[in-house]
Amino acid sequence: MRIVLLMLVGVLAAAVPGRAAVLVNGAGATFPYPIYSKWFDEFHKRNPDVQINYQSIGSGGGIRQVTEGTVDFGASDGPMTDEQLAQTKVPILHFPTVLGAVVPTYNLPGSPRLRLSGDVLAGIFLGRITQWNDPAIVAENPDVTLPAEPIVPVHRSDGSGTTYVFVDYLTKVSAEWAKSVGTGTAVSWPVGLGGKGNEGVSGLVKQTSNALGYVELIYAVQNELPYADVRNAAGRWVRASLDSVTAAAAAASADMPADFRVSITNPPAADAYPIASFTWLLVPSRIPDQAKGTAIKQFLEWMLGDGQSFAKALGYAPLPETVVALERRALARVAVGAP
Amino acid sequence: MTARYRRRRLVERLMFGATIAAAATTLGVLVFILGYLAYQGATSLSLDFFTRLPAPVGETGGGMANAIVGTGKLLATAAAIGIPIGFTGGIWLAEYGAGTLAAAVRYAADVLNGVPSIVIGVIVYALLVVPVGHFSTLAGGVALGVMMVPVAIRATEDFLRLVPDALREASLALGAPRWVTIVRVVIPAGLRGIVAGLVLALARVAGETAPLLFTALNNRYWSPGWSEPTASLPVMIFTYAISPYEDWHRQAWTAGLVLLVLVLGANVLARAVLRRGMAMR
Amino acid sequence: MESPETTVAGDRAAGLRLRFGAAFAGRAARGTTAPVARRVLPPAQARRRAGAIGDPLFHTVSLAFALSVLGLAAVVGVVLWRWSAASRAAFGWSFLATSTWDPVFSRFGALPFVWGTLATSAIALAIAIPLGVGAAICLAELVPRSTGDALAFLVELLVAVPSVIYGLVGLFVLVPLVRTAGGAVARALGSVPLFAGPVYGIGLLTAGLLLAFMTVPFIVAISREVLLAVPETQRDAALALGATRWETVRHAVLPYARTGILGSVFLALARALGETMAVTMVIGNRPEIAASLFAPAHTMAAVLANEFSEAAGDLYLSALMEIALVLFGITIVVNAGARLLIARVRAPAGAPA
Fold first, then answer.
1. Is C29 exposed, middle or buried (0-12, 13-18, 19+ CB in 10 A)?
2. Whole-structure pTM over 0.80, yes or no?
3. Are residues B67 and B191 part of one domain?
4. What pLDDT, on the 0 to 100 scale, is given for residue B259?
């Protein structure tokens, strides 16, 4: 017993870092987790004193924990509602970081490239369309042989900004969806299995034949899962890509509100991908801890500059220049140190 | 041999056959779990696993060095909380406890034992994370410590009660005060069993994941001190297992193997100590 | 939850107490040894002074720690009660009967989770009881003592395997197994509501199976001890009357051990009810009540794990706390039942009920 205790003490002593590091904790969206994880790693390499620990617990978690003040910053793909903002102790600022796309991903033999319109997607997740070879799906995919198998819808079991983006889109394109299910980071799903995080959903889709889920683009790409083309408001079939996502943000970035809270689903642009979204870092407008506040602001500066160059490799579209300029000015709104 | 007797013998053989099948199934499951885990875990076992930090999402490589240390720190904290309360409380129950108060304490220990670990995590979140303003190793350790208390108190009480009263009476007869009797005579006599029980309690909380989700959260980096979130083996296993990345799955298996070796090793050790102690009586 | 080793130790303690006589048990319980010391010894001022402050101090300190256990249990109850107040006020008793779980429209009902918890536990026990009691009988009656001890030791190790590892093995081994085997069953018996619907591999049955494997070791370990504790005279008498060995077990041994076995079942149930991680990895996390074994479901513990850290909005959080309260209540009741039964086993046993 004594030996065990001594060993423990030895190990613990070794765990304390030699230099006083600034430890920042953030939590939230799984949607941008791959790029955030890369960013914090790269920032740490450039600033070894700063360690930003980000945990992907879902956008709902990010909103809640930054509201409670248990993390230094949050992250969400669904902007905070007015009610949520009213409940925070300190006003929370939204800083867009990248643009991403939510894609319908599926597990079918042969991994065919499918077209799924908003109506079909709403129908599937409402439980009206239950088979892969339903006439509605076949009509949109005449060259594909679809199996006579039941669709296994997969959704999020936790509060999710990815869900928010997806159902925000479904609410806009399907009146039935708007009436019966609505929008939010957590909704009452009529059908389907629940996975935890983008990771959980892509894991489930990957392991379950005939499954259909919605994930951020990079999760489908990294896991070699096929994803569908979606029909946009202009009536064209668009595949999620850097260009189509950037096109989706074009209208919004010209007219960006001061608090950066905007939805870009189902935009009118001709080559826009309809299920795209900004994703935001939720930063308190006052950060009492000097070191942490400075570190966060430094990160945001870096993110708006060099950081944007990492986005493309991971399938996220970098922010439009106009938005970057607006954000740089907005950084001044983050106050550091005790009031 | 009448026909009736032969039927009864047949029933006997069938039923005993069924029980043998049941025993074989149960043991088979154990062997399978251990074997499968060992097989999957061993294939990715490497020095990297024990020495490196996790890699960014989607990249291969990296290890769980911080999770291993994190688990160690959490267990140390849990022990610091669970053992004093359980041990001392158990002493009271065994040596002084009588009547309704003792019954109430025992019942409270049972209640605490029965609380699902996730609920304990929720409570500690409400009391130690929100008011303080951050997730922490301390909160995680407290949650685990609270879970240790019922097992520790039970083990202590049971093994102290096993100490024959003759020892107590002899010590008192020699003029030792009550508390010296307890501390110098009774406890050493029951120590072997108590230590075994405490090690078992510790091993049990080592594998708990749920209470850590809302208290210690998780950490990509090393977690110095006790007031930062920390990585831990069970939480890493959970996070990696439900993810879609193959590399993470492999690491989850390896972490599972390490955790299992730790927990089972402690169990085997504790029981060996216990049996030797029992044999000596 | 109870581990067999401390129960076993308790049983051994009970045995010792029985053997050494009620006198010792009584005296230890009463703690009346101090007067003896003062009567027998010559006045030793120094010793009495040390005892004069040491004894009450030690007593107080140990009492304080013992009371802190009461405090901890009370804190759990109080926090859950207070944080669920909003939800209790909003929904009342209908919370337990409603099956909507809608964070968007703030309508919450716990029924799907209660159903999922009870259903998975029922499936688990339905498998674990025959398996566990059967294995216990084999290890107690059929196998020579030393081998039985070694095998029981191995089974007890299963108790120690952490839940997340069961989840790991369940996710990667059991789920594909249920998908293929279940697929065959569903094709054959698909018309029966119990087996209807698509087989995802993830669902009620998988969770129940996994829980069964997690709870069987409790039943085996405790039942074996209980069976071994049945006096040989029972068996001898039955055999002398001409019973076969199986009949002996069935009519002479099992009824004697019934209470203890039932206690172990309650203990297993208590574990199954509170199990979180392994279940959430294989159950599908879908708050819906369906008749099919293959349908995904949700349990009270799993919904807490999934939704607690992000429940934004007071009513949502309060509803989750109310679920935690309900779970807490159920596990207290079951645990109390287990203790009562096991306590009856420890008391000097009378004739089999």
1. middle
2. yes
3. yes
4. 92
Q: Please indicate if any CB of chain B lies within 8 Å of the CB of A23.
A: yes
* Mean pLDDT computed over B159-187: 90
| C105: closest CA of chain A, how far (Å) | 9
Q: Residue C14's pLDDT is what? A: 45
The residues near B83 (Cβ < 8 Å, ≥ 6 apart) are B148, B152, B198
- Domain hosting B55: range is 49-280
Among C residues 157-216, those touching chain B with beta carbons less than 8 Å apart: 157-158, 160-169, 171-173, 213, 216
Q: Apex CA C346: angle with CA C343 and CA C349, to 5°?
A: 115
Q: Is A71 on the interface with C (CB under 8 A)?
A: no
Instruction: Between C1 and A241, name the one with better pLDDT.
Output: A241
- CA–CA distance, A164 with A59 (Å, rounded to integer): 9
H/E segment holding residue B67: helix B65-91
Question: pLDDT band for position C350 (50/70/90)?
Answer: very low
Query: In chain C, pLDDT over 70 holds for what percent of residues?
Result: 82
Q: What is the pLDDT of residue B277?
A: 63
Kindly indicate whether the domain formed by A101-254 is annotated with CATH number 3.40.190.10. Answer: yes
Instruction: Provide the domain count of chain B.
Output: 2
Q: Do the chains contact at C171 and B242, CB–CB below 8 Å?
A: yes
User: Which residue among C200, C201, C310 places its CB closest to the CB of A57?
Assistant: C310
Counting one residue from chain A and one from chain C, the pairs whose CB atoms sit within 8 A come to 89
Tokens for C113, please give them. Answer: 């989770």
Domain covering A21-99+278-336 assigned CATH 2.40.110.10 in the classification: no
Scan for tokens 């955030």, then name that residue: A36
Residue-level pLDDT at C69: 93
